[in-house]
Structures are given as C-alpha cells and as structure tokens.
Amino acid sequence: MAIEVRPASVFEDVRALVGPKSPTANVCWCLSYRIPSKLNNELRGPARGEYVAELCRADPPPGVLAYDGDEPVGWAAVAPRSVTAFARNRKIPHVDDLPVWSLWCIRVRPGHRKQGVSHALIAGAVEFARAHGAPAIEAYPLDNGDAKVDLTMAYAGIRKNFERAGFVHAADTTSVLAGHPRVLMRLDLR
C-alpha cells in the first residue's frame, strides 16, 4: 500500500475520519483540544461539522490526511500550539518559548491499521508543520511501554512511534490517558 499524506482541506474526507455516523451527534470531531472548552460545549450536532468545514477551508487547514489511492484512511490533527488548548494546559508543560506546533491526534480507519498509516501521518504532520514555518513540533503520546492501549484512547499516539520518527523526550507531564502517563515528545525542525 502506497500512502500519500495531504493537507486536510477536503471536508468530506475529514468527515469520513472524524465525523459521527449521525450528523446530530455531539462527538469530538477532533475539536476538544483545538477550541476553548466553552465553545466546544456550545457547538452541538451539525454545528460541529460546520465548524470543521470552515477549518478545512482555512489556511492552514486543521491537519493532514493519509490516502490509499483516493480513499482517506488516516487523520492527524496538527496546528500551532498557541491556537490550541495546549497553550493553556496545566498538565503538559512548556519546555521553552519557541512557537512550536502540536500534533495531538492520530486516527487510522479500521481495516487500515498495522499497515504503517500512523507512521506516514506523523511524517506528513512534521512536513506540514515545517512547510508552515514551525521551528519545532511536539506530541503528547502515551508512554505505554509494551502495554496494550485501548484503541479509543490511542488517538494521542504512542511514544515508540514518535521515537521512530525522530522525536525526543522533552519532558514528563502530569497528564494520564487510559491509565498511561503521557510524555512530551519534540522534534526540532530548525
């Protein structure tokens, strides 16, 4: 399978990966870290999708998508940390004042897992951030060792996949997800 990673500017493809089956559902749409919690709670049902459609038309779009041919098979949320909840998160520290970008969500569609899609998404997100002038990119994956991670909570990624992509451990955090500590991993792009 040849995976191509592109900017997430096609809303229907983003919807296929992070949208709900029912348009009236109040699920994540990968907005919980992207927007203030008050707005996240106010956006209900179809308004969530409409908000994401606007993000897809923005420059830069809200992340990257992995494609197998024309089929969208993976999603990664990546944006300047300053415009995300990570700018104010008390559990995930800032290691310096660099205007870093954050990569906080990786999703691979069922039927396409264990085929290298998440690795392609990480690499594509790094290139996307680099192309938009990011001096560094951070991720906040689970430090799960060899323990199994519930797929629902695996969206943050796992430490060893970021290490394979050249990220280094920059700091411990007090954030825990699915019973696993999260670590701050960083890749310098300068």
Short key terms for the protein model shown above:
190 residues; alpha+beta; 5 helices; 7 strands
Major β-sheet profile = 7 strands, mixed
Helix content: 10-25%
Q: Give the total of beta strands.
A: 7
Biggest sheet, strands in spatial order? 1-2-3-4-5-7-6
- Poorly predicted runs of 5 or more residues: none
Question: Which structural class is indicated by helix and strand composition?
Answer: alpha+beta
Question: Helix and strand string, N-terminal first?
Answer: EHHHEEEHEHEE
Structure write-up:
By secondary structure, the chain is an alpha+beta fold. Helix content is 25%, strand content 27%. It has 5 helices and 7 strands. It has helices spanning 11-18, 37-42, 46-57, 117-131, 159-164, and strands spanning 3-7, 63-68, 71-80, 101-108, 136-139, 168-177, 180-188. The protein has a 7-stranded mixed beta sheet with strand order 1-2-3-4-5-7-6, sandwiched between helices. Helix 4 links the parallel strand 4 (101-108) and strand 5. Helix 1 (11-18) packs across helix 3 (46-57). The longest helix is centred in the middle third of the chain and has 15 residues, at 117-131. The protein is globular, with a radius of gyration of 16 Å. The N and C termini lie far apart (31 Å). InterPro entries: Acyl_CoA_acyltransferase (IPR016181), GNAT_dom (IPR000182). It holds the Pfam family Acetyltransf_1. Its EC number is 2.3.-.-. Residues 3-190 form the N-acetyltransferase domain. One of its GO terms (molecular function) is acyltransferase activity.
